[in-house]
Design a protein that fits this description.
The structure holds three protein chains of three kinds.
Chain A (H helix, E strand, L loop, with lengths): L1 H22 L9 H4 L7 H13 L5 E7 L3 H15 L2 E7 L4 H11 L6 E2 L6 H7 L6 H7 L15 E2 L2 E2 L2 E2 L6 E5 H5 L1 H11 L9 H11 L7 E3 L5 H14 L16 H14 L11 H8 L4 E6 L1 H7 L10 E4 L4 E3 L2 E3 L9 E4 L6 H11 L2 H9 L16 H7 L1 H12 L10 H16 L5 H19 L1 H13 L3 H4 L4
Parallel strand pairs in A: 1-2, 1-3, 8-9
Antiparallel strand pairs in A: 3-13, 4-5, 6-13, 7-9, 7-10, 11-12
Chain B lengths: L14 H4 L9 H28 L20 H7 L2 H31 L7 H8 L7 H11 L5 H10 L15 H25 L3 H9 L4 H29 L3 H6 L11 H11 L3 H30 L1
Chain C lengths: L1 H26 L21 H7 L1 H10 L12 H33 L6 H10 L2 H15 L5 H25 L3 H9 L4 H29 L3 H5 L8 H4 L4 E2 L3 E2 L1 H21 L1 H8 L7
Antiparallel strand pairs in C: 1-2
Classes of the chains: A alpha/beta, B mainly alpha, C mainly alpha.
């Protein structure tokens, strides 16, 4: 991620420059406190633990982590090693998955000090930043973060808000497509498909190809369904988001005027609705785990999901274990060129609470937990949420065993080039309006153009309430962080 | 509304009781009622004052400022509320839920009470089991209903056996039908209460009138309609009133079963306010909604307090 | 006709019992049976693993390692903390509520404090949707440093159960003629002592019933616990939602086990005060 490097170097040089200018009169150039305290990349976990121990200075310190229920498997092994290395105890406070962002935001109001570190979902970070509950980690990163620490991180867009660091990503929630290999490779099907469409059956590169393939395989009378894609609110919005970007547009223009209701947006929605007919009957009502089980039956051609999906599909409970082909998010043809837009639509970030009494030690823990060595330990646990997010994870044998090598290859490529979610203040409100209207269009209550126009006008209201100028600053920053290969192809 | 100091001067204080004055500062009877009064004041009145202020602002924690620093938007919140289809829908939906639940609970309770009026073997045991639903933690009852209405759960299975073909309807994901499991959970849990109240009322009815009418040849239906019902009216009114107030506040089943979803299809007024305040964190806006509801409730209570007092005496 | 009546009663009993039966039955089912179709009514392979996870997580983990297919769930917060927190808050709030309630009820009945409409003002508290009060309470508690604390929840619960305490105890006191106290006062006993020596022993049963009733309300409370805590204080109603796993979603069996255990005290107390339930839930208006 060279742009990440250059930005950091730029900031670092700027900071150094000002430090030198400020400090120069009183200190000789040979003493530069900022440089001396930095940790080394190879041993960052050892050194971070060491520093934390020094800071604790023999006093009994406890760090409390607010975590989503079900993630303990990812955190506990790390915490136990931390305790052994530093003597600092870790306490866990669990809240249900769908409440954790709210609880962190509630803490901004109540300031009760009930946690030092939290694991909110990445898309909620802007709201948390503006509420003041997150510590701006720029200074601490300046002090401790080693050179190249974020280098083999495949996705770091969520770590930053308006140029400052607020937390380290600790999950690899890039969207991936799943296909039944046997159906794809069946020679008879290949012939029929080629005759009909003029190109061979393959892992689809574009949404048009995917839609055509799904329609082709949909034979309910034979007990075979085109796809196990979701048509519930959250997932509809995610699928539409990728389809829209694949047509070559950003959701807003540079002045935060919504573009989602342009021709491309309406087309994307119409195509999504058209494909709904070729999905399995549970598409409109099934949640995450029902979908896993349904797809694992082996009678639906394609599914969409994350690493967690694959952990289930690769387990002994699944009938399709070893029978899957994987593909990235389909893209689209933009000005004749194929643009693929993988999507990172959840994620968890380690953040430090601004009410914490020991922010520096808390930061060191997050540095420790996201270090190459310890994060690999965290991701290894199959019964947790964290999917691989550092290059080094993809060569760990246990992780390969959990996910299977072909999956990891596709996952890694997707992570590298993922477009972010809408990291703006009020993300929940923006997306909620989008979700409700997309679903209304999908079930036929509204016409696609009508639905998207409504979303656009509501988005304008929300932007006004959030403060347009402030949002524009973050939007432009976010745009500049879209993956290099995609950034310049979207308008 | 809460006038502690008012009628105290004119309340009944015999000379003997006057000797109990607390250093002549606060009358004794007021002093011992103070803890309760203050607790209620603290938890109800002070928040109401805060709500009034908040409702005039569009405060959101994500603005990064404290609540007292928020910029007033004066009455725009109320304007937005009245034009917010989601709020209006929530109010109407809650009224529908209250009316439907009340009607069903009442009829079931009356019917059951009539069945249990006479003595018969196992009656006591049956009563004990019938009042069991009232004594389950509402959250756990809601979880039980969540499992029951699963698309592959027992309810669908029973329907399949009755209808004769597979029935895998996703109750909680359907915008039109998701309200049904919620209402059923509420009705299941609280009909026993209505049943108990009505039964107690029926058992307290003067036997002589009823026996006399029976001896004189009146049919059972006539006895029921002409004698029992009118005499039961106070009990019925109280039961309906108490239950409709509690049903108006319904939250636990809605939260556990659907969170107000899909979309906002099952949002009751409590769920609307919860979502607005704790999911979107639009606290100023929801404070305006809260104030509207508080005013509504207070108005109803004041209007009803006179007739209620009559029933009491 | 008789048959119709009998079958109606039977139907009512079955409907009343069925969801509870399902809850308890599910709590003994192994994970494969939670969402099996056709539904499993009573498990043929009952397991205690769900209860182990709730009550003894370490034993659960050990069991899961030995037994193939049993859920091995990594628990962080023990349910015992939830039981303890709920017990502490419920007991504290009940104590305060009954204490303040008795005092206020005595004042209202014997002195007609506040006039005839005063008791109805307390009733108004009960009519407010709690959610309307929660939003400012979050703000208020944050200023008073009561957020996510036992004291905060205790105060909130006390306030909202005071109407029940006051009305119920009021109806008990009203049943004791004032003359009894008057007789004691003739001998110069101060009014409060007269109350405590004469009336209170007579209404002891009623006060206890009120206490149990209020305890039930506090133990089952959900909304305040949900919104006024940020994870440090956990009640039994909140703990249920924590039983989710990354690989299986909602752990129905474990949630059912937690639900069964947390409902037991309520059922127990409910049956103990069965006679007084009517009085309590009708705010003392309807008496046996």
């Amino acid at each position: 991620m060279s742009h990440r490097q250059s930005r950091r170097s730029f900031l670092k040089n700027a900071a150094l420059g000002t430090t030198i200018l400020a400090v120069a009169p009183s200190l000789p150039l040979s003493t530069r406190p900022a440089e001396a305290a930095k940790l080394s990349l190879n041993n960052v976990h050892v050194e971070a633990a060491q520093r934390a121990k020094e800071l604790a200075n023999g006093k009994p310190v406890t760090l409390t982590i607010l975590q989503p229920s079900g993630s303990l498997g990812n955190i506990k092994p790390v915490a136990e090693q931390w305790k052994a290395a530093t003597g600092i105890d870790i306490q866990y406070v669990e809240v249900p998955l769908d409440q954790i962002n709210q609880k962190v935001l509630l803490e901004a109001v109540s300031k009760s000090g009930s946690f030092d570190i939290a694991l909110p979902a990445s898309f909620g970070i802007p709201d948390l930043v503006t509420s003041g509950i997150l510590v701006n980690l720029d200074e601490l990163a300046e002090k401790y973060e080693p050179e190249g620490y974020q280098k083999d991180y495949l996705y770091t867009i969520a770590n930053y808000y308006k140029g400052s660091l607020y937390g380290y990503e600790t999950d690899g929630d890039a969207y991936v497509m799943f296909y039944l290999k046997d159906w794809l490779n069946d020679p008879e099907e290949n012939k029929k498909f080629a005759d009909k469409h003029g190109y061979k059956l393959k892992v689809p590169d574009t949404w048009e190809e995917l839609d055509a393939t799904i329609a082709f395989f949909h034979r309910p009378e034979q007990g075979r369904y085109g796809g196990a894609l979701y048509r519930t609110q959250y997932f509809i919005a995610w699928e539409w988001w990728v389809r829209f970007h694949a047509k070559g547009h950003y959701p807003f223009d540079d002045n935060l005027k919504p573009q989602i209701n342009n021709e491309a947006g309406v087309e994307a929605l119409e195509e999504l609705i058209a494909t709904s007919k070729f999905l399995y009957p549970g598409a409109r009502s099934n949640g995450l785990f029902e979908n896993f089980e349904a797809f694992a039956q082996g009678d639906k051609f394609t599914n969409i999901g994350w690493g967690g999906t694959q952990k289930f599909l690769n387990s002994s409970k699944s009938k399709v274990r070893g029978k899957l082909a994987f593909g990235p998010m389909p893209g689209g043809l933009v000005n004749g060129e194929l643009v693929k837009t993988p999507y990172f639509n959840w994620g968890w970030n380690y953040v430090v609470s601004s009410v914490s009494k020991q922010p520096e030690i808390a930061y060191l823990f997050t540095l420790y937990a996201c270090s190459p060595a310890l994060s690999t330990i965290a991701v290894r646990d199959a019964d947790g949420y964290f999917d691989p997010f550092r290059k080094v994870h993809y060569s760990d044998p246990k992780i390969i065993e959990n996910y299977s090598a072909p999956f990891l290859a596709v996952h890694e490529a997707a992570m590298r080039d993922s477009i972010p979610d809408l990291y703006l203040r009020g993300q929940g409100e923006y997306f909620d309006v989008l979700r409700v209207n997309l679903q209304a269009a999908d079930v036929g209550e509204k016409k696609p153009k009508e639905a998207l126009d409504e979303v656009a006008s509501k988005w304008d209201t929300i932007t006004r309430r959030m403060g347009k100028q402030s949002q524009i600053v973050q939007w432009r920053f976010l745009k500049s962080n879209y993956p290099e290969g995609i950034r310049n192809r979207l308008v | 509304m809460l006038n502690l100091a008012g009628p105290v001067q004119s309340s009944v204080l015999t000379p003997l009781e006057a000797s109990g004055r607390l250093r002549g500062l606060i009358p004794f009877n007021v002093a011992i009622a103070l803890p309760a009064q203050l607790t209620v004041l603290g938890v109800v009145l002070v928040p109401t004052v805060i709500v009034v202020w908040l409702s005039l602002t569009d405060w959101q924690p994500t603005q990064g400022i404290s609540w007292y620093e928020a910029e007033p938007v004066w009455f725009w919140n109320y304007y937005d509320l009245f034009h917010d289809p989601r709020f209006v829908a929530a109010v109407l939906r809650t009224l529908v839920v209250v009316v439907v639940c009340m009607a069903v609970e009442f009829m079931l309770a009356m019917g059951l009470a009539l069945l249990f009026l006479d003595e018969w073997p196992w009656r006591k045991l049956a009563v004990s089991i019938i009042i069991l639903p009232m004594m389950v933690v509402p959250v756990d009852a809601a979880n039980a209903f969540f499992m029951l209405f699963n698309d592959r759960g027992p309810i669908n299975y029973l329907i399949s056996t009755i209808v004769g073909r597979p029935f895998e309807f996703a109750w909680l994901a359907d915008p039109n039908w998701a309200l049904l499991p919620i209402m059923l959970a509420e009705i299941w849990q609280w009909t026993p209460l209505m049943f108990l109240l009505v039964l107690t009322g029926m058992m307290n009815l003067p036997e002589n009138q009823i026996r006399a009418a029976y001896v004189l040849g009146a049919s059972r239906t006539r006895i029921f309609l002409r004698i029992m019902l009118p005499l039961l009216t106070p009990v019925i009114v109280i039961a309906l009133l108490v239950r409709s107030i509690e049903t108006f506040k319904i939250f636990d089943p809605v939260y556990i079963l659907t969170r107000g979803g899909p979309g906002a299809a099952t949002e009751t007024i409590s769920m609307f306010m919860y979502n607005g305040a704790f999911v979107y964190f639009r606290m100023g806006y929801i404070a305006a909604a809260a104030l509207l509801i508080l005013v509504l409730v207070a108005a109803i209570c004041t209007a009803l307090s006179r007739p209620l007092q009559r029933y009491q005496r | 006709m008789r048959l119709l009546k009998r079958s109606a009663v039977c139907l009512a009993v079955v409907i009343a019992f069925f969801p509870i039966f399902w809850l308890v039955s599910t709590s003994f089912k192994p994970i494969e049976e939670w969402q099996q179709f056709p539904p499993v009514w009573i498990s043929s392979r009952p397991t205690l693993q769900n209860y182990r996870i709730v009550l003894a997580p370490d034993a659960a983990r050990a069991f899961a390692e030995r037994q193939n297919g049993a859920i091995s769930y990594k628990v962080s917060g023990s349910a015992w903390k939830a039981f303890g927190d709920s017990a502490l808050i419920a007991c504290g709030a009940t104590l305060l509520s009954v204490l303040f309630g008795t005092m206020a009820a005595y004042s209202i009945v014997r002195f007609r404090t506040g006039g005839d409409s005063y008791p109805f003002q307390f009733l108004t508290v009960r009519m407010f949707p709690p959610i309307a009060v929660v939003v400012p309470m979050v703000v208020l508690f944050s200023m008073l440093r009561l957020s996510d604390s036992y004291a905060g929840l205790i105060v909130a619960y006390t306030a909202f159960t005071l109407p029940f305490s006051i009305w119920m105890i009021r109806s008990f006191i009203e049943e004791v003629p004032e003359e009894l106290e008057g007789a004691a006062r003739i001998y110069g006993t101060p009014p409060l002592a007269a109350f405590l020596k004469v009336t209170f022993p007579l209404i002891q049963g009623g006060v206890l019933a009120t206490a149990l009733f209020v305890f039930i309300l506090n133990w089952s409370e959900f909304l305040f616990a949900l919104t006024l805590t940020t994870g440090h204080v956990v009640t039994v109603t909140l703990q249920v939602a924590n039983y989710v796993s990354a690989s299986s979603g909602k752990l129905y069996g474990v949630q059912a086990a937690m639900g069964t255990i947390s409902t037991l005290p309520v059922i127990l107390f409910g049956y103990l005060i069965q006679r007084h339930l009517v009085r309590g839930l009708s705010f003392g208006a309807i008496k046996r």
